[in-house]
Amino acid sequence: MEKMNEIDKITGMEKFGGSPVTFDKIDVTGGFWKEKQDLFYNKTIKAVYDRFEETGRFEALKFNWKEGMPNKPHIFWESDVTKWIEGAAYLLQKRRDTELEAMVDELVECMVNTQDKDGYLNAYFTVVEPGARFTRRTDHELYCAGHLVEGAIAYAKATGKTAMLRVATKYIDLIDRVFRIEYSAAFDTPGHEEIELALIKLYDYTGEERYKLLAEYFINTRGTSSRDETYSFADQEHMQSHLPVRKQVTAEGHSVRALYLYSGMADLALKNKEEELYHICKTLFSNIVNKRMYITGGIGSTHHGESFTFDYDLPEYTAYNETCASIALAMFCRRMWLIEPDSRYADCAERALYNTVLSGVSLFGDSFFYENPLSVNPKRNTFNNSRPKGLQEHLPIMERVKVFDCSCCPPNLLRVVGSVADYMYSTVSDVIYAHCYMNAAGTVLLKDKEMGLVQKTKYPYEGRIEITAQTEGDYTVALRIPAWAKKSEITINGEEITVPVVSGYAYCKRSWRAGDTIVLNLPMEVKVMEANPKVVDLCGRGAITRGPLVYCAERADNNLELRDVRISRKAGFTVKQETLINTEVPVIHTKALVRRIPEQLYLDETVTKKEIPFKLIPYYTRANRGITEMSTWFLLED
Amino acid sequence: MEKMNEIDKITGMEKFGGSPVTFDKIDVTGGFWKEKQDLFYNKTIKAVYDRFEETGRFEALKFNWKEGMPNKPHIFWESDVTKWIEGAAYLLQKRRDTELEAMVDELVECMVNTQDKDGYLNAYFTVVEPGARFTRRTDHELYCAGHLVEGAIAYAKATGKTAMLRVATKYIDLIDRVFRIEYSAAFDTPGHEEIELALIKLYDYTGEERYKLLAEYFINTRGTSSRDETYSFADQEHMQSHLPVRKQVTAEGHSVRALYLYSGMADLALKNKEEELYHICKTLFSNIVNKRMYITGGIGSTHHGESFTFDYDLPEYTAYNETCASIALAMFCRRMWLIEPDSRYADCAERALYNTVLSGVSLFGDSFFYENPLSVNPKRNTFNNSRPKGLQEHLPIMERVKVFDCSCCPPNLLRVVGSVADYMYSTVSDVIYAHCYMNAAGTVLLKDKEMGLVQKTKYPYEGRIEITAQTEGDYTVALRIPAWAKKSEITINGEEITVPVVSGYAYCKRSWRAGDTIVLNLPMEVKVMEANPKVVDLCGRGAITRGPLVYCAERADNNLELRDVRISRKAGFTVKQETLINTEVPVIHTKALVRRIPEQLYLDETVTKKEIPFKLIPYYTRANRGITEMSTWFLLED
Fold it and tell me: Looking at this predicted complex, what is its ipTM?
């Protein structure tokens, strides 16, 4: 009983007590994410910049465009630019780079020069449709403003330069006046949410209460206004305005919009310690992870409106699974674990980050996927591409490209990879929560004292995580035990210990001395996962996972009809570190069964099967070797 | 050796020697098809008429429409009317009905009155766009002309009245002049094929060589003309004009267009004894049945252009499988068996007729399906219907309707059911081929002598077929042994006999006396069919068939997640005659396995399975009990 009270004290009492530990306090020093960050620093940041430059996105900031010129500014081009700046700022936070900084400064100077006297800033509504400012809810002005704020804060934090932040706050002040105080815009809430979470960030950064008020205004007004129109082809669900947010219990509509909104809602629930809003966020979270999420952490089952569909609807080939949507899902999870430590949130964030999000970028770092389906059938795409436009269906592309017309995902990847250490820790009172494991060193502020922590691990490829305290003190380290790790072990200074595990966190309480080392061993078993029987598209099939990684098979490795491959738990799995293009990854080998190919289309007998060697690679490394068939779900033999 | 020569003599030598035995010589006297014909006579013919009347299709024939009036004539409304007339004529052929005849006469009178002096007849191009006659290939004028011919021949045969036939031949004479002789139309070949086979029918009926010449002209010119445009959204494949017909080796484009064309090609190959054209027809047939046909005989995998897609692409939920396309497939097969007796043709015709075609009409006879998917998921349709138009996907409807905007299927069903005995027999020299088995009596012309034959059977529900010769003579009865019937038995006058079986026909040669009776026993086993491993959508699943009938399960009978039901060949199957709405059908009972429904979406262990009773009904009887989930392909356990 005493033990239970103890746990209550360190958990139940502290709801709404979480504080984030941000990446600026933590250096990723090696391992999986260091490789990614180096690649992004050396290649991706410049690759995205170059494509944006070529497509006129930077030029548009100068407001020089005139009718008849190429590269007409688009309603959300600013967000591409400011997200790129945010990504650059996260890299600059860790390594000064005068060249990169100069590139940002030039863009900021543009903004300073073109911002309207009253604070307004948007190329499209200045040079293309000057009269239409704040008249069309569907046209992304507030979404762009949100990204401007996020980029500005990041750049100010990284460099101390505040010019962009002044631009951003001046614009937000205008928005506050127009929307909340004077009520003079033609609509009430953003058609594409994002500004809400940005405003909370701005409130945190500046301490100015009015930014939180504006975020609250947008969130609370949502779904209550008769002035909030929507697209002619869409509906209020599409932009989560079908109900007041506190009445929404299923994840609906455009998935990126939805998860940005839910992130803002979670931010607000935390700030206001609002039980009702948290309950709604939790209900939405459960609806997603229990009924509407792919095993890769992908969300948004259909390209029709890039949106959620209905419970258990998870088609493989046409899965939309936008890279940005999974980034937004991870962002939502990170906010949720601040409200209430529950390992389901970090499990979900990891699932999204290690699978769908990273599938969004090539191993070369310079090309991108917007859509991340679970299976790919080149024959279907080839046929489809051969048809005239009017007879085509929408199918995800099979090779990553350098830039999209709607190119939100590449700079969003820049942001998330640069700041990935955001996902490591949080604190509640004297508890340090360790959520996602990375090879990194830094400090965590605990009751006004910076506690040093060094984490060493080859995660997600190996399950051993070593955390060494750098500072002495009485506190608790709460280690997340992922749901997939059934038999984890913890040692402190080499001694195995048993500690209470509550909601997926192992609470290690101790008077820590510098040098004390916790080793967490997570068993990295290969698992065969089944989907719920209600999932029409996955029945009878199994997916292979190891740790947080989902695996897939490509025809490049297996010259077979992948769809007809039968796997079995009994077959046994061997994990080998192998080189894939430019990266060492753990590859899984097993024996599978395939049927011989007969001539007939339908047969009244079982076709002979034969055993074949079968190789699987991490899902996120897919599609790096040209166009090839890919499957994630295989026929499952007992 | 002598035996082989004997077979050669009765088969190989006689290619291109087939003569049809048409339904006017045969009365369906009981059993399966009699029930359908009675229903169609008592209900369907009038139901289709009433809907056509309500929607202005008959009124349009009067050419009274003016801008601003409702029910603007549509470019292919005439074909609806003339197909209805053809269906009515087939019923009138068997039972005089002055009321029904008067209805037709009134329509014919309309045509006589409105036909242009030069022979032209089309409401749309007379009252809506009078200047556009024969200028747009895509606009179905020739298709309508083809159906006018077919309707006119049928009505003349049934009643001896030739007014409609005179209208038709006058129109065809104009078409012949404009297209073939004067070459003055703006295009060369029909955008929607049909007229080719109608012209061959007209040639057969009138003996006028020029009709065959025109059919040849259209078929041979196809794919060679630079004046043959296509839809802006489509391509030449869509209307089978991508290549000259003798270069086409895969079934492409709009499936109804394709199969009407192939039917005309087969007609021509037979008339001209052209080996090359037959070879092409055979190649196209093989491509369809070995790679592009659903197990129900449905063709056209996608609604995009109502068309064929690519080899082994057979999705279940979005299968288009237009009722008309399977009717056209049966028509093609019937032509092919005249060229060369091979049971694959009749197997295919039966597959189409007993499954997809009959699925097109309700058990009540007054409502229809245009699309016949293999599985139905009401949740997906409900969600889809709840979305605004711009965000909807195309899904087949789940309940039959009384009429469609494009209502080709209902009158096509009238035609095929009324004349279904067309599928029973053909002759080659002194061989009577028995293709499809029905309870029917009639005569077959063999070398100028009418041979009486009485067939008694409860087929397709039971496998016993009794054929009694009514006329003495030396001839061969070649009984089709379906591919699904592995161990059939034949007795003559009660004595079991062994006869040569070539290409799926059992040749019973004998000096027949009146009263001699053949009994063919086809084993009606329940079979579990597997699809070729290349069929991505069906891998790991099995479909249940019995005789020519494909079975499906409906949630109305099985309150389960149908998609997760596991069936096994070992489970055993019981067949029971049960009443479904208004019809006695053999229902299949078995034991199946289902998993319990857990809360989680993904699980790392096998979910407990339990055995449940499972009931299947013939596919064609689906969707007669309201909206309900339906599956045809089930998970297959060894």
Answer: 0.94
